[in-house]
């Protein structure tokens, strides 16, 4: 049986000290899948949760972490999507398994690597940019002329979302973050209209001032219950609030501002939760196509940038997970495999 090296977790879950390079069977391919030799993979917060045993894996996901990668096609199954061949340089999204020398992945989730982008840049694109497109368009129903606010503005999905919003005709793009350094980054580097430090100002009040009391049309939220009341205050009539995570905790606590639920029908607000990894392949494939059609040309000409905080050799995976745990990033962390 052919084997490969992959990042494993001692005892199957635990702290970053449990990460190690393991030897496991090389995956096999069938139907429309390709075997890709991985050159680089991106890190995501879900990886930390999976390592700790706190992330419910979809049934088709292997236990090896990692959902985005770049590399070369080593082998194709008989039902593979036309347009791909052995030796092609690609990047893509998977249900898991990217922390490894090889990954088995559907060709419906692969994209040809542009010559203008490096392996590391391509590995930093799929999960965050597809998630941002999903939140904006499929859930938030974004269209030109609408205003939008991205919480956790220096997080990877919001870095992508702010760029997408600006370049696709948003009337205004707002962001929040937890430090002046990060709010400055959102405005200076990403082009947000304004960004607010949630530790020093009431961001909902600031948004209402900036919009002359109207509020924003779309709010993309990763924080959860602690921001619900402010989200309802800052939302415009017929606004969409898209919930993608609960980084601030899953429960509404007494010390939080209490939400005014009258806002839901008074403003006709729609609040919807969503996730990407649990979606079926057909749904994810449509988003892959949207990425190719709407974002890839702008990556090629430099309009869009996959901001990378740091690149690690994969032997330093513990250090990479540690940096993500400490929230010390304004962009992607990427690991390379020699």
From TrEMBL:
Pfam families xref list: ADH_N, ADH_zinc_N
Transmembrane segments: none
Keywords: NADP, Oxidoreductase
Positions of the Enoyl reductase (ER) domain: 14-335
Matching InterPro entries: ADH-like_C, ADH-like_N, ER, GroES-like_sf, NAD(P)-bd_dom_sf, Quinone_OxRdtase_PIG3
Gene3D superfamilies linked to this entry: Medium-chain alcohol dehydrogenases, catalytic domain, NAD(P)-binding Rossmann-like Domain
CDD domains on file: p53_inducible_oxidoreductase (cd05276)
Highest taxon above the source species: Eukaryota
GO molecular function: NADPH binding; oxidoreductase activity, acting on NAD(P)H
Protein name in UniProt: Enoyl reductase (ER) domain-containing protein
